[in-house]
Amino acid sequence: MSISRIGKTIEEHIDDLLHAIEGVSSRATQLESKTRHLEHTMDDLKGTVEFMYAETEGTMRHLEKILGEVHAGIQFLKDKQGIAEAQMLLQRLQLSKSKASKLAGL
Q1: DSSP output for 3-69
Q2: What is the pTM of this model?
């Protein structure tokens, strides 16, 4: 085998190796780009989740406030109904007492 043939064979192998290295480099660049895109997507998702959590928490606080107001309104109505029932009972008792007094006076 001659030196020129050995040099040519080595040159072919070096070209094949450089071509393979370029392919690996290209794939590494694509992977880096996709990884960067995934990182940005995850950051966006994290921001969205945090925003939605804060919004949901605010809505829950608002609903708790409304529920407290409804509970206070129901208690007010119950108290008012109790007072009205007591007033009706008092009127009946007074009417009954009045009738009893009239009957005793006859």
Answers
A1: HHHHHHHHHHHHHHHHHHHHHHHHHHHHHHHHHHHHHHHHHHHHHHHHHHHHHHHHHHHHHHHHHHH
A2: 0.54
Q: Please give the Cα distance from 34 to 43 (Å, whole number).
A: 14
CA 61 to chain centre: 13
CA dist list (Å): 19 to 5, 12, 16, 28, 85: 21, 10, 5, 14, 97
Q: Give the CA diameter of the chain.
A: 153
> Distance (Å, rounded) from C-alpha 26 to C-alpha 11?
22
- For the segment 13-39, the average pLDDT, to the nearest whole number, is 96
